[in-house]
TrEMBL record:
InterPro entries recorded: CGCAxxGCC_motif, Multihaem_cyt_sf
Annotated organism of origin: Faecalicatena fissicatena
Name listed for the protein in its UniProt record: C_GCAxxG_C_C family protein
Length: 155
């Protein structure tokens, strides 16, 4: 695993893949996976494919925020019932959520994109900013807490 993350490269990778056809959630996971050099299956990207446009178009949570949350869960989540590790995961996901709301005004896709056509250049540019900021904040959260991660032995 790589912990020397070039944040500008991370941002560029997320924006590039987002503008190449991946959705917001897929782009955040792709860039984190690539830049941290994670031995994570591409299935993680596929698992996130239902989040764009607010859960498959329903307009709920922003996919970029969902992708970042999934990445934090990868590092800080639990795999066994009763493992208290989920408490740190909750705290870090809440930190990402608060960052997102503070910087973009809401966590809900339909609120964030109100009045924008789904395939419009205006919406793509707006969403690109959220993907860009979210992937960097996600990486910052991950890096700031690695000593408490399930990956602490490889850091």
């Amino acid at each position: 695993m790589n912990t020397s993350i070039d944040m500008e490269k991370l941002r560029e990778d997320a924006v590039h893949i987002f503008n190449s056809g991946f959705t917001c959630s897929e782009s955040v996971i792709y860039a984190i996976k690539k830049n941290f050099e994670l031995e994570m299956s591409d299935d993680a990207i596929a698992i996130s494919s239902g989040f764009p446009w607010g859960l498959g178009g329903a307009g709920c949570i922003c996919g970029a925020l969902a992708g970042g949350t999934m990445c934090i869960g990868y590092f800080y989540g639990r795999t066994e019932p009763g493992d208290p590790r989920n408490q740190l995961c909750f705290k870090l996901c809440n930190e990402l959520h608060d960052f997102f709301k503070e910087n973009y005004g809401a966590a809900c896709c339909r609120v964030l994109t109100r009045g924008m056509e789904k395939q419009s250049p205006e919406r793509k540019a707006h969403c690109t900013k959220m993907v860009s900021g979210t992937v960097v904040k996600t990486a910052e959260i991950i890096l700031a807490n690695l000593k408490d991660s399930r990956f602490q032995d490889v850091c």
